[in-house]
Amino acid sequence: MKQRYELLIKQLDALLENETNTIANLSNASALLFHSIDHVNWAGFYLVDNEELILGPFQGKVACMHIKLGKGVCGTCASTREIQCIGNVHQFEGHIACDGDSNSEIVVPIIIDKKLYGVLDIDSYDLNNFNEVDVRGLEKFVLHLCRHIY
What we know:
Number of helices: 4
Shape: globular
Strand content: 25-35%
Distance between the termini: 30 Å
Order of helices and strands: HHEEEHEEEH
Number of strands: 6
Number of domains: 1
CATH architecture: 2-Layer Sandwich
Structural class: alpha+beta
Strand order of the largest sheet: 3-2-1-6-5-4
Helix content: 25-40%
CATH class: Alpha Beta
Mean pLDDT: 95
Radius of gyration: 14 Å
């Protein structure tokens, strides 16, 4: 599992090398994750804009376009700046069900120069699909991704 994230990070860096368009980089990063992590039904980004999260590039079904900071799993991640790894989203108080079939979720804050830029959000149809290996792997993935956000 750990090796999978090391490979993903190498693929990310190679894929985004010399590309300066942030939307293109986030789009390819979401596609890379969506097609590389098992049992994922949504992978993408919400970006901070006027004190809320706005839908950014993603792979999967249509999604909520506005999320208030502090609301749902993504908003909680954004307001606390802490990774949220939720085994059963239906037990998460205030969960926002953009896709009612999603059962577990992991959200990683994207912080650039000590400012919240947005969050990486990944959903799964499976309960308890994410674990500590995913937490650490996606945390490193986001750190590398930040080098490609302009």
